[in-house]
Amino acid sequence: MRTKCLHHLSRKTSFVFVRGPIQDVCTKCSNTFPAGSRITEFDGKQYHPDCFSCADCQKAITSQFYPFNNDYLCGTCHEARFPRKRCGKCGSVITSAGITFAGASYHAACFVCVTCKQPISATSKISMVDGQPCCVNCYEDKHAKRCSRCHKAILADVEYLEFEDKYWHKECFTCSKCQKCIAEESFYQDGNLILCKDCI
């Protein structure tokens, strides 16, 4: 006679105690179950508790597990074999649709601007600051380089030139005298002036 124990590995797995001699043998080791011992039952099969073990780490399974190639994996080993995406912000597993940005995955609720902490839509224009997502408004106001001529923000996806620790939009890099764009040409410096070859 067998009686169910109060503990469960899952809805379909239970412990039972052997009250007297029985004919069944352990599915794994083929040995019998002594009277008074405990049995783990799952999917119509019976095991000694120590025999109901993880195929990888060989430790007895005492909580969550997963069927694997006619055997079982504990939760830890299953995660190692089949790692699930984890959120780049909170570190928790992403179980539903998430957002991928710069090679990292995020829960939609965790995908927020690194500066203002407000949610960013996956369809919005997004910049990056120190590897973290940043909304366009915060990037322009607080993080973007500033053009030395027009003083407007240089956005992350815009071509720009750098010279002596100063920055210009490509179209703003012009000769100080004739105002011709010299972004693609040779130029000369005369004090604070940047001159094209025709104006030197």
From TrEMBL:
GO terms for molecular function: metal ion binding; transcription coregulator activity. PROSITE patterns: LIM_DOMAIN_1 (PS00478), LIM_DOMAIN_2 (PS50023). InterPro entries: Znf_LIM. It comes from the Eukaryota. GO terms for cellular component: nucleus; Z disc. The keyword Repeat applies. Signal peptide: none annotated. Keywords: LIM domain, Metal-binding, Repeat, Zinc. It holds the Pfam family LIM. SMART domains: LIM. Residues 24-84, 85-144, 145-200 form the LIM zinc-binding domain. PANTHER family: FOUR AND A HALF LIM DOMAINS PROTEIN (PTHR24205), PROTEIN ESPINAS (PTHR24205:SF4). This is LIM zinc-binding domain-containing protein. The lineage of its organism: Eukaryota, Metazoa, Spiralia, Gnathifera, Rotifera.
